[in-house]
Amino acid sequence: MSHSRVDVAERIDNEACPLTEVLERVAGKWSIGILVAAAQGPVRFTELERAIAGISRRMLTLNLRRLERDGLLVRTVYPTVPPKVEYSLTPMARELHTSLSGLVGWAERHRADITTARAAYDASAVDAGTAS
Amino acid sequence: MSHSRVDVAERIDNEACPLTEVLERVAGKWSIGILVAAAQGPVRFTELERAIAGISRRMLTLNLRRLERDGLLVRTVYPTVPPKVEYSLTPMARELHTSLSGLVGWAERHRADITTARAAYDASAVDAGTAS
DNA sequence: CAGGATCCATGTTGATACTG
DNA sequence: CAGTATCAACATGGATCCTG
After folding, report:
1. What is the pLDDT of residues A80-106, one digit of tens each?
2. Could you tell me which CATH number the domain at B3-131 has?
3. Model-level pTM?
4. Which keywords does the record carry (chains A, B) (predicted)?
5. B 77-106 residues inside an 8 A Cβ radius of A
């Protein structure tokens, strides 16, 4: 039945546009890290800040807001002093965990391969340039 | 045993940095679309261009080069006239298919939820601003 | 057909400083 | 602690024109 190549191509054509927008949030540079880090349970702002390494306060805040806005994170403020804010995944976001871990696992497994591939690609590009 | 929260946080801290770089390529705005479209078999440039909808020639080329450089795509040039170029996934990239489909499936299932969540979030934000 | 090259508008990120 | 505000640097993306 209709699982020809045209079929899939059309599916992407028709739905990837809004889908792209959705995927961008989920699969953006920092989102995966945040989502994975928050998967263990409620996480505090500072915990995330340290867990995600290269992220700036600004970017963390922005991403948290976006994820909250899209219904992936719940932000809980405890009106104590000093302030305490916890972020946790919504059920919808929890459904992502498998795919996200899959992605992270893949990245871990193939990090070296990718580095190698890059070096090889760059080397042959240089060769082509040097071939005069 | 050691799957405490500190454990996971450290794992992310130590490895997410280069990992982030890897994930960016895979999870970038267009990469998923390209990878999914190419999963069906060799795809030509123009096929991709039409399949991915909003993408420009420039962005498609750039992304194809990056994916090729990272060893996720193989570019095959047929020296015919007019030229014919096909892109196909490497075995490494094929391993991603499950996770990627999972992501796409999730996005499809929850697109409406996300739209709703956004509207709700924005509405309450407006309320707060209007509450003078 | 499948790009490469260039210019320019825009968005994204980081650094820094300040706050309830 | 958990942000917000502002500015400057940089990357991203689109439009346009050109080519083997």
Report:
1. 999 999 999 999 999 999 999 998 899
2. 1.10.10.10
3. 0.84
4. DNA-binding, Transcription, Transcription regulation
5. 92, 95-96, 98-100, 102-104, 106
